[in-house]
Amino acid sequence: MYETHFNLTDKPFKLSPDPKFFFESPHHQRAFAYLQYGLSQGEGFIVVTGPIGTGKTTLARTLLSSIDNNIVAAQIATTRLTPDELVSLVASQFNIEVEGYSKSEILRRFELFLLQLHSQGKRALLVVDEAQNLPAETVEELRMLSNFQLDDKPLIQSFLLGQEELRPIIALPQMEQFRQRIIASSHLKAFDEQQVKDYIFHRLKKVGWDEFPKLDDNIFTLITDYTLGIPRKINIFVDRLFLYAYLEEIDSIQVTDVNVVIEELSEELSGSLAKDEEQTVTNSNAAVTDVLPVTQQLLSDNHLIEPDQIMKTLMEVSDVLDNDIQRKIRVIRQLDKFIRIKSKQVEQLDKN
Description:
Layout: H1 26-41, E1 45-49, H2 56-64, E2 71-77, H3 83-93, H4 103-119, E3 123-129, H5 136-145, E4 149-150, E5 153-154, E6 156-162, H6 166-170, H7 176-180, E7 182-187, H8 193-206, E8 214-215, H9 219-227, H10 231-247, E9 252-253, H11 255-270, H12 272-299, H13 307-351
Parallel strand pairs: 1-6, 1-7, 2-3, 3-6, 8-9
Antiparallel strand pairs: 4-5
């Protein structure tokens, strides 16, 4: 939406993994180097772990985009699979027919496929994403697949990427043989403030950003604190920040703008927006309910209510209603700006 307005060639903070946006922080650079080392060795497991949103899938996509034609690769994102289900899924990802075949027959067909690759001077690479979902016995099945060898050389190699929960699975006593096959492992970490700043500039420069809008130096501390330095959260936040700058026609993003977006996102992502609206109605009803007895008493010949009490209750009702009205006004203004901008774009297209 805002890309054309800011003269960008692409959406800079998209959530889908894209190798062209790969950012080599020290941890990501090390992890990528380990994956490349594993490829050069042609055997063993490489394990990369990290918290949610730290860029493991982007790392894998970047690796796969850089391999040569001698490697036939497949990538799977796992759920909780049994060993048999894993074998079927892996075989099918290499375009091997599995429907209606037993596990032993699938393994036989898979081995024939690997031998054919070898005869062509090629080998297979399996990248397992979200590997923390696999039970220990299914991870062990991956080790069994690595036993497909010819002339003491493996015909298939596996890289595992997963959240931190993968590490205790690998550390289990029964996983000793698997651990002995791991030739390198790496753990991705969140960015510090300087890395957050470099990451944002890196992605913007990839799409032709020419300091429009400008980014005030003071905003990066706030962005780091709010996103905790997690790349995926940074993408979500800065994408929303640029959308806000577009809708508000801002050409320089300041701390105040960041605070506005933090408030908006905090409400939406926590689900508190709906709760706030519900609470507004509840408070309004409660305030009105509170004032009714006062009014009734005021109208009664038998009771005399102090004016201060009446004013206090009326002010409470007024405050609640004002807050509700202001919230709706902000939403309407944003929608109005969006409609006006879209109308201008449509008019421009008609002229062309």
